[in-house]
């Protein structure tokens, strides 16, 4: 549910654009948009710019995950035409002050955490991009097995053209692109973490591993939703099951 707190003058399309931009930001561990997870607490759009408040299931969520999502949100909003000044702030986290100051200064992860940061976020992001691909791959193959359209002995030979069109295939193609894998219809679906095809003899084991990754991600997603709902159950403005509170004060539309 999305709550509209205030809406004046002509409704701006900037609100819709901001929501869409934030929808492209995912929790790296869960591979779900932060908008679907209700991590976006509020969006304020006025003639000066856009201000977004984020929240997480606990105050001790990993600081690198928290920073990554907040900085991705800031990047996504700054790409909008006529966005103006973009402010993204993380609420109720033990490192909120540090993260918010780093975002405001656009200091980057290393600049924000200094000696506390062992390394940048590139390796972390790459790890979860691979996991997201692995889970998407499993969903496609298991779906065909459940519908008896393929046998366990055949899964090692599945190609992208064998997958029926639909959300699962579209999700897999997006994640293959993210990890740099070919989208050629003749490409094999089951691949290892290195992107190389697995032998037919190892296909079953690869699928079981992929299933464990997918179940882990989905389980963590349910767990995080429950924690968020409990943590913010008493929030009168935006409880843990609600979408962002939106305040639209913009009085002009973009000239574009």
UniProtKB/TrEMBL annotation:
<protein>
    <recommendedName>
        <fullName>MIP18 family-like domain-containing protein</fullName>
    </recommendedName>
</protein>
<dbReference type="Pfam" id="PF01883">
    <property type="entry name" value="FeS_assembly_P"/>
</dbReference>
<feature type="domain" description="MIP18 family-like">
    <location>
        <begin position="17"/>
        <end position="82"/>
    </location>
</feature>
<dbReference type="InterPro" id="IPR034904">
    <property type="entry name" value="FSCA_dom_sf"/>
</dbReference>
<dbReference type="InterPro" id="IPR002744">
    <property type="entry name" value="MIP18-like"/>
</dbReference>
């Amino acid at each position: 549910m999305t709550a509209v707190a205030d809406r004046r003058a002509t409704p701006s399309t900037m609100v819709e654009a901001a929501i869409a931009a934030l929808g492209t930001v995912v929790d790296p561990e869960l591979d779900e948009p932060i908008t679907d997870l209700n991590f976006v607490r509020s969006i304020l759009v006025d003639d000066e710019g856009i201000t977004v408040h984020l929240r997480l299931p606990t105050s001790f969520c990993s600081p690198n995950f928290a920073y990554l999502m907040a900085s991705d949100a800031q990047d996504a909003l700054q790409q909008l035409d006529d966005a103006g000044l973009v402010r993204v702030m993380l609420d109720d986290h033990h490192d909120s002050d540090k993260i918010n100051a780093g975002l405001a200064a656009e200091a980057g992860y290393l600049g924000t955490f200094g000696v506390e940061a062992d390394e940048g976020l590139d390796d972390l992001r790459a790890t979860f991009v691979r996991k997201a691909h692995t889970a998407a791959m499993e969903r496609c193959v298991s779906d065909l097995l459940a519908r008896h359209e393929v046998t366990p002995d055949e899964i090692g030979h599945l190609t992208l053209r064998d997958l029926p069109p639909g959300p699962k295939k579209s999700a897999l193609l997006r994640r293959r692109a993210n990890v740099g894998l070919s989208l050629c219809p003749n490409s094999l679906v089951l691949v290892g973490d290195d992107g190389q095809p697995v032998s037919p003899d190892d296909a079953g084991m690869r699928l079981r591993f992929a299933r464990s990754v997918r179940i882990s991600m989905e389980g963590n997603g349910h767990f995080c939703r429950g924690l968020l709902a409990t943590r913010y159950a008493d929030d009168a403005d935006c409880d843990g099951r609600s979408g962002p509170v939106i305040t639209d004060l913009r009085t002009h539309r973009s000239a574009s």
